[in-house]
Amino acid sequence: MKARNRSFDVLRGVAILLVLGRHYDYHYIRIWHSIGWAGVDLFFVLSGFLISGLLFSEYKNNGCISIRRFWTRRALKIYPPFYILILLTVAYCLFAYRSIPYQVLGDIFFLQNYAPRLWGHGWSLAIEEHFYVALPLLLAAMIRISKNKENPFRSIPMISVGLTILCLFLRISASHRTAHWEELAFPTHLRVDALFAGVTLGYYHHFDAAALKLTRRWPMLLAGVLVTLPAFLFEGTTFTTTIGLTFTFIGCSCIVIFALNQRPAQGSVWKFIAWVGRYSYSIYLWHALPALYVFEKLPKSPWFCGAYFCVCIGFGVVMAKLIEAPALRLRDRYFPSPRSVLRVKASLVAKLRPAPCVAV
């Protein structure tokens, strides 16, 4: 199994902690609550970078990409925990209300960001699911039509620029009709620019690595924070839901570049944040249960605030070990990654190769 990049786990940890802060409104963490929505944007850019990297690596090693294998492996990562949550939700509705709300259809078909839904936090999962479906199809089309088989993805940076302009235009156009955050920040066609910014970083990392190399890392981190700052200052306004979202994913892209050049994080605090990041998907998925059904009904206090973060993280880690980890083991056993397949083939070739003759 490929070693994890602790710097990226730290980013995942930061992103999920931002989201948890967003979903707990308490005056002692009011700033945290105000900027917490940016955690999703950081997830988007990082997902675009890492997921595209899997496909770029496969192409560089095999000269092609297996869409079926990619979709299968993504499904075994995303679906088991998600659909168990939906199954438990349906069971609860049947027990409490003797009926199943029709809104569950939005969750089942990953249309939470367009259709009515039961779980409000599922909108970002829907965007990522649409991205997982579309990206390998786009890359496969680029491979087919490109004459440059060594690097058929040269147009990705220009596609990213085009999507940035298009999504910004669409958000500004939509803002003339509505000011609701959900209608401007949730639809896939208004947010795919953030994910594709990560794809662009993945492209440069795999085909022009020198472009992302930094001689001085900290100015890039500072640039990421400063670029994102205007969206925070005007949080709750149309600026944030239009131009601010563009600034945010550009700032998050700078932070990802910084992490790409950063040495593995040391220190107990960073190791803890990286540990949290390792379980970020299950924490994000399951934190809504204690957040809505326990802590939303309790008085706001420093003690309950601390308990909220501990319970959400702990519950997510437990569910990751119970559901996500076994599903990933099955995935890696029956649908190994292309890199693992190559290692197995190389090992077999080495074993079957005849031993060299030794003159006596």
Brief synopsis:
The chain is mainly alpha-helical. It has one domain (6-352). The protein is built from 16 helices and no strands.
Structural write-up:
With 360 residues, the protein is mostly helical. The chain has one domain (6-352). Helices cover 73% and strands 0% of the residues. The protein is globular. The model is unreliable at 355-360 (pLDDT under 50).
SSE layout and pairing:
Layout (H helix, E strand, L loop, with lengths): L5 H17 L7 H6 L2 H25 L4 H31 L6 H5 L14 H23 L10 H20 L5 H5 L2 H20 L10 H16 L4 H24 L6 H11 L1 H7 L1 H6 L8 H33 L3 H15 L8
Helix pairs in contact: 1-3, 1-12, 1-13, 3-6, 3-9, 3-11, 4-6, 4-13, 4-15, 6-9, 7-9, 7-11, 9-11, 10-11, 13-15
Count of discrete structural domains: 1
**Shape type:** globular
Distance between the terminal alpha carbons, to the nearest Å? 42 Å
Which segments are poorly predicted (pLDDT under 50) over 5 or more consecutive residues?
Answer: 355-360
The percentage of residues in β strands lies in: under 5%
Average per-residue pLDDT, rounded, comes to 92
What would you report as the Rg, rounded to the nearest angstrom? 22 Å
**What structural class results from the helix and strand content?**
mainly alpha
Order of helices and strands: HHHHHHHHHHHHHHHH
Helix fraction bin: over 70%
Our count of helices gives 16
Number of E-state strands: 0
Describe the biggest sheet? none
